[in-house]
Each structure stands twice: as structure tokens, then as C-alpha cells.
Amino acid sequence: MTAPPQPTSPGTPPARVLLADDHALVRQGVRLILDGEPDLTVVAEAGDGAEAVELARAHDIDLAVLDIAMPRMTGLQAARELSRRLPDLHILILTMYDNEQYFFEALRAGASGYVLKSVADRDLVEACRAAVRDEPFVYPGAERALVRSYLERLHRGDGLPERAVTEREEEILKLVAEGHTSKEIGELLFISAKTVERHRANLLHKLGMKDRLELTRYAIRAGLIEP
């Protein structure tokens, strides 16, 4: 029987963790789990993905633990941004969604692990230690199903599903669904309101939708915002 992974050796400084979730109670619970370990310490907390990116750039962070569904910027969007700006940062996705597509999107975004909130008390510490060692982590029970599904798609010649929208369109879709104006979105993304309107028109055309309400429903189904 293989021995469980061990924490870092005595004398090694604990890994510095950034925790991002828009629910304060969830952050509090996860912090209790991580701060109870000698080799992990939470040094920063964020309530949304954009704040997580700002804090990661401002602090000396070893590991970012990101919820998927957050305001302004999702965990996947934040992971993509952090991977570009801080390529040495380790990233874990913490989510309530037991979803194969999210798992592959998380890997594509630069995350090394995917942990379900429902079993965070069991898996999160091990996942954090694996990420810090630069090793992948998949929650127990998912490996066979993920590999089987992927192999079945390869045999059919399907490969991975294509993204319905670009990363920039996804950012704008999320902010539109959250009720932000074109001017506010432009300020958040450092683009002009006119460019926002053009992306919004492209989204409506690409997705075959008529208005903000339909975009919002799509954003909920895609996990970009919570209902």
C-alpha cells in the first residue's frame, strides 16, 4: 500500500496560499482547514477573481485556490490571467461543479488540480500539497470516468469540445449578465465602451440570442454566474 503524501520537512517555510471565493463563510471554512496544517498558511483572501489577480500580484504567493463562480471574473478567467502574468504560481480550482468540461477548462487555464467543495475537508490539503510539488490532482473517483470519456471521444474523432465563445467574449458575457453597463465593462477590462458593444453584438449573433436576459440565462447555464 502506497504511503500518503507527506507535508514539507521540518524547517521549511509553509506554502503561502491565496484563497478566493465570493462566500465569506466558505473562505472561513477553507481557511480553518488549511491553517490547521503546518506546511500551509493562508496569507490573502479575495471575494472575486479580479481581486484575486490583484492580490496575487501584490503578495508573495505560492498557491492560489480559486472558486469557479465568482463576480467580475470567474476562477477560470482568473486562472488564465494568473498563468499569463505569474507562470510560476500554482493554481487549484475549488468548485461545487462535478463537471467534466469544467475540469478540462481548468487544466487548459493553467490549474494543476480540481477539488469539489463537497469533499474539501477530505481532499483539499492533499491537493494543495500536490500543487505545491507541481503535481496534478484529480479528485478520487473522477480519474476513470474522465479518461474513459476522453478516450471515447478520441475513438469517435471528436477530441475536446470547442469553446463556444472566445476568452474575451466570455469575460464580457459574464459582466453583461451581472448587470454592468458597457462603460463599466470597458473600465474593468481597459477597453472602450464601443469595443464592448461590438463584442456584445458578436455574442448575440454567435449564440443566436436577442437580449441581455437570454445572455444572462446562458451565463448561468455555463457556470459563469450563479442563479
TrEMBL record:
One of the Pfam families matching this protein, by short name: Response_reg
Keyword Transcription in the entry? The reply is yes
User: Which top-rank group of organisms is this from?
Assistant: Bacteria
Q: Which residues carry this modification: 4-aspartylphosphate?
A: D67
Task: Tell me which positions the record assigns to the signal sequence.
Answer: none
GO MF term list = DNA binding
User: HTH luxR-type domain: from which residue to which, for each copy?
Assistant: 158-223
Q: Which residues form the Response regulatory domain?
A: 16-132
- This protein's species is Streptomyces doudnae
Q: What is this protein called?
A: Response regulator transcription factor
* Record keyword Transcription present: yes
